[in-house]
Design brief:
- By secondary structure, the protein is mostly helical.
- 75% of the residues lie in helices and 0% in strands.
- It has two helices and no strands.
- The longest helix has 45 residues.
- The protein is rod-shaped, with a radius of gyration of 27 Å.
- The N and C termini lie far apart (77 Å).
- Required for the export of heme to the periplasm for the biogenesis of c-type cytochromes.
- One of its GO terms (biological process) is cytochrome c biosynthetic process.
- It comes from Neiella litorisoli.
- Keywords: Cell inner membrane, Cell membrane, Cytochrome c-type biogenesis, Membrane, Transmembrane, Transmembrane helix, Transport.
- Belongs to the CcmD/CycX/HelD family.
Length: 68
């Protein structure tokens, strides 16, 4: 085994802070990217539904007003 104990594993030869910080930043970036994709998808789907509802209302309305 490369490390004598779990504490030595966490310290990584006195470089543990930088190693675990880089893992944390990487994982945090991936989580933020995943959240942003889900949020954007929700907004896009809501926009499409709104557009389709508006299109359906315009299609079914008998009278159309001309708005300048």
């Amino acid at each position: 085994m490369a490390f004598d104990s779990f504490a030595a594993f966490l310290q990584m030869g006195k470089h543990g802070f930088y190693v675990w910080l880089s893992y944390g930043v990487g994982l945090g970036s991936l989580i933020l990217l995943w959240w942003h994709c889900c949020y954007s998808r929700r907004k896009i789907v809501a926009g499409i539904k709104e557009f389709e509802a508006r299109r359906q209302r315009r299609k079914t309305s008998k009278t159309t007003e001309r708005v300048l």
